[in-house]
Specification:
The chain is of the alpha/beta class. It has 14 helices and 14 strands. It folds into two domains: 213 residues, Rossmann fold, CATH 3.40.50; 115 residues, Arc Repressor Mutant, subunit A, CATH 1.10.10. Helix content is 39%, strand content 14%.
Length: 376
Amino acid sequence: MTAAGARSTDGVIRGVRVVDAMVGVRDAGGVTEREVVFVVFDGFQSLDLVGPYEVFANAGGYRCSVLARRAGMVNSHSALPVSAGVGIADVAPDTVDTLVVVGGAGVDAACADRELVAWVAATAASARRVASVCSGVFLLGAAGLLEGRRVTTHWRRAAQLEREYPGALVDVDPIFVRDGRLWTSAGVSAGMDLALALVEDDAGREVALEVARELVLFLRRPGGQSQFGVPLWGTRQVGDPLRGVVDAVSADPGARHSVADLARCAGMSERHFQRRFTAEMGVGPAGYVERVRVEAAGRALAESADPVEAIARRCGFGTGETLRRTFHRHLGVTPSDYRERFRSTGPAASRRPEDSVNLAGSVVSAESSVSMKETL
């Protein structure tokens, strides 16, 4: 591996890193070296940059550079200083293979930078692929790239994206979406899933899995997996009646959880409970329970060797056939395929799902379809 000003002793990430080969991960020659340019700005989210950058760096065959309006120091939202090795005047738009625009609190100001927006638009016109991480999609929108496109972003920004770019088809649920040459991802860690998918698109599944193992990632999550992969209720008051309902479902996904049962748990009438739960969670009680059960079953499949029928009964599906139908509807794969993809090979494989930490609150959605448009 060769590097031009990678990490210095002061902790600053600098310049352009050229990856010729990663020992034990990917030898040079397996993938044609491709130019990957990451666009940053003051107030960017550092993980949106570093996570995907490391995926490409570990894959080998990519020349990664960090670009800002002008070359030099750029501060992330958390004040982590990063040195952009190149500015927009240093990179000809037609030399970029893959353009990746990161997100962050500073993206709104970046969208008002006419020169930066113009460079993104010009580069997108000729790049083989254009991608955004988290709220970086707003900069793509400012460059006129979202009209009629299916895209995603961080769930907190979805409503704003719909307001500002009504021509975009915003899908808040998946962790990443591909629409032809345009790839967009949800928040922060989803950028690594997106980068792994881009590597897989170039070099195949085995290379992507090697990178995931090297970086100790959860192999590769399918793009259609929901970005709501952790409980969103941590900031609620302990006494909130809906918090009690969510806790009850997560504690025992396989138990009886009818609307009447959950309404009694919340101390509300069924009608009021259904209305309030749907308004605050974005999904009805029955849909939420089913999604938590899918998540619980997915964990059980990945972490245990229990038969599908036993997992189905324990997670509230009753029969293996019901589990298979529900899994296919939510994830687009069978339980067996899911187990094959995500099966743990360590000690966790022998655990029962009830021994796992925190099954709850995770919402898994339908597998995203891919619109294979040829041009932006």
